[in-house]
Amino acid sequence: MKTSPRRPLILKRRRLPLPDQNAPGETSEEEPKRPPAQQEPSQVQASKEVAESNPCKFPAGIKIINHPTMPNTQVVAVPNNANIQSIITALTAKGKESGSNGPNKFILISCGGAPTHPPGPQPQAQTSHEPKSTEVITETLGPKSASRDTNLPKPPAALPGRRWESYAGGEAAGCPLDNSLTNIQWLGKMTSDGLGSCSIKQEVEEKENRHLEQSQAKDPQVEGPPGTSASWPHSASERPPYSYMAMIQFAINSTERKRMTLKDIYTWIEDHFPYFKHIAKPGWKNSIRHNLSLHDMFVRETSANGKVSFWTIHPSANRYLTLDQVFKQQKRPNPELRRNMSIKTELPLGARRKMKPLLPRVSSYLVPIQFPVNQALVLQPSVKVPLPLAASLMSSELARHSKRVRIAPKVLLADEGIAPLPTAGPVKEEKLLLGEGLSPLLPVQGIKEEEILPGEEAPHLGRPIKVESPPLEEWPSPCPSVKEELSQSWEDSSHSPTPRPRKAHGGHKSPARCVSDMLVIKRRERREMSRSRRKQHLLPPCLDEPELLFAEGPGPSRPATDLALPAVSTRPASQLSCSQEEGGPFKTPVKETLPISSTPSKSVLPMSPESWRLTPPAKVGGLDFSPVRTPQGALGPLPDALELTDLGTTPMKSVPLFDSPRELLNSEPFDLTSDPFSSCSPSDMEVPKPGSPEPQVASLSANRSLTEGLVLDTMNDSLSRILLDISFPGLEEDPLGPDGISWAHFIPDLR
DNA sequence: CTATGTAAACAAC
DNA sequence: GTTGTTTACATAG
Questions:
Q1: Which pLDDT score is estimated for A404?
Q2: What are the DNA-binding region positions (predicted)?
């Protein structure tokens, strides 16, 4: 390779001055918190017994039932006016008591009156219906909102601490820790952590931070306390099973400010993974740099004075993984997990290249949940789902796709940051979006696409969700420099069908098909991209990133396993391969276009896929929570999307995780209140449909609703938002009609 | 094909 | 020399 004749010329790059970009934001850096890793024990087994529902009541009038298909998981219907915190606290306690064998995961949904759909407001009231199936999807990612919370838990000083931080939930150890960062208990406390403060004198701070960071980096202890530490346990000579990308993330996330200079990154890696210090060829540093430049998730920030460059992880993409966390997971008791881990770890040595080590990124909670309502009812989603889509999805391909579960597709985060989120208003948090970012229009289309293009994975659909949210605020300024560019370019690429130099795709067909065309385009682009890799768009979380989730299926397909997913979910898995990027297809050209940054590619215009982000505005504006925002506003698709996408399989990042429950709570007023149905409400759901041809689809939508709920995992002490896709196949027949339905119907026990 | 790893050419400091 | 970008190529899955 070296001199390959083909080597393209490199155009000159100019660096933008961006003087102070960061200034503004600096503060933002704040640290996010930590991510909770979610894990779940996925034990498959359980299914049934658990299923039995035992409704328990909580103080607040909460109804709790065992999830029919997910082991150790209970569905908690929370009255609108209930005190969520207290409920969470109670559930946490309960979960901890139960330990790994008992219910340790709770899906909270509001049962209060659903505005729109009356019948069910109070779940209690309801009778029984059968719910058909529900799917929950969530993502664990964690970008949290800006809010910051930083790490609460940790000692501020944190210095070296980070390693210790780990704690992580102790789960593994079996300790019920409450200390975990995500622990709910903090909720109450955290209010004002120190976190908030940010900046001000940036420079000063920067310096300070740097020190800290450096110090951390240097910490010798790398290995530190065994339990905690992160250092790579294996012999120094062994190459760690983590990709460069993962290691970079670990390094960056090990600092409080979540940023690190290149040099510190080198140092951190050397300290934690002796292999690089002693054995690896010097070229590893080149690789680090390469990775930093290549992946959009890594954002370079310049200090106020412009002299120091810090590398940060885009909040939208940052899962806040730390080596400790990962490590702990590995330790996890759960056999399956271990298996996975071990595999990973072990592998590598020999095979060096194989490191794919990152933890399996699971899509966390994307697991679909089915509520069997009544057994009888347990419908198969299929019933209603008949969509062609479904069929197609189901098709072998999908199944096949299961190959990898990618959690995070590379969606483009690009926008993320940028996007000023329209609404932003609500919370900073992210909102989730489901669906893909296709054009608003079609929900169905997605389907078609697939049909059309079988080969691919469900492209966009898959893309699922996204997350959005970049907490704008969080990203400080820096982004601007890079990001801006990015944003533009990205979008362009995606959208504009036009210009792609490369393939002309041929004419687009009719406008109507735009969508599909677009999709196609994307694919092509993707391919193109593959050739040259430009900066990878942020992916939602990058694929590679290490995810903590556990669940990932061990190997196989089941991603969601954690939860014990129902089979259903699993199967589909698929696809989604996530459209990874989408981004700008062309590599080269970009540069020229955008003189600005060197990396043009990213920048392409914003329209594309990401559009969802943009789009939502209208809707988005709404609540954060509830309604699912569909990417583009096309809600309609959601349902479909969900299915199609395979939520289960697909990674959706959308769901925001909250590092700490507290965060979650704070972030928004929860809307548990909103009733599922309400959310479904027509407006949203329907909207999308515009084009959807299929009646079926329509029906689906009618019967299905998306709503947001929360998943409380006491094993992790994590609280995540999730989207629930509830379908009621039988509803039509139901006298009440879809609208009238309430959870209660489905879950009699809720009462 | 994709994701990753490596090497390398350049550019800007 | 360091830091960043971007290609090219290789390879495992």
A1: 31
A2: 239-332
In angstroms, the CA of A498 and the C1' of C6 are apart by 24
Q: Which of A109, A138, A172 is the last residue of a domain?
A: A109
Q: What is the pLDDT, as a whole number, of residue A311?
A: 93
Closest CA relative to residue A365, chosen from A559, A568, A541, A104: A559
End-to-end CA distance of chain A: give it in Å, rounded: 68
pLDDT of residue A115: 38
Which residues are in reach of strand C, CB within 7 A?
A: A 1, 4, 6-8, 10, 13, 261-263, 266, 286, 289-290, 292-294, 300, 309, 311, 347, 351, 353-354, 482, 531-535, 587-588, 590-591, 597-601
Residue A87 DSSP one-character state: H
Return the pLDDT at A291: 94
CA distance A177 to A218: 28
- The DSSP code sequence of A681-706 is THHHHHTTGGG---HHHHHHHHHEEE
Domain count, chain A: 2
- Sorted by sequence, the CB contacts under 8 Å of residue A381 that are 6+ apart come out as A132, A133, A135, A370, A390, A568, A643, A727, A729
CB count within 10 Å of CB A17 equals 10
Dihedral over alpha carbons A168, A169, A173, A175 (to 10 degrees): 140
CA(A249)–C1'(B6) in Å? 20
What is the per-residue pLDDT for A61?
65
Whether residue A248 is contained in a domain is answered as yes
Query: Tokens representing A421?
Result: 């989120």
Q: Distance, angstroms, CA A609 to C1' B1? A: 21
Residue A243 domain flag? yes
Domain that holds residue A310: 235-329
> What is the Cα–Cα distance from A641 to A607, expressed in whole angstroms?
20
pLDDT recorded at residue A296: 87
Domain end marker among A275, A298, A329? A329
Q: Output the six-digit token pair for A683.
A: 């407006």
Write down the pLDDT at residue A289.
94
Flag whether A365 is in a domain.
no
Chain C: bases < 7 Å from a protein Cβ: 2-13
Residues of chain A with pLDDT below 50 are 1-57, 113-230, 334-531, 539-706, 725-751
> For A193, what's the count of Cα atoms within 13 Å in the CB-facing half-sphere?
26
Q: Is residue A295 part of a domain?
A: yes
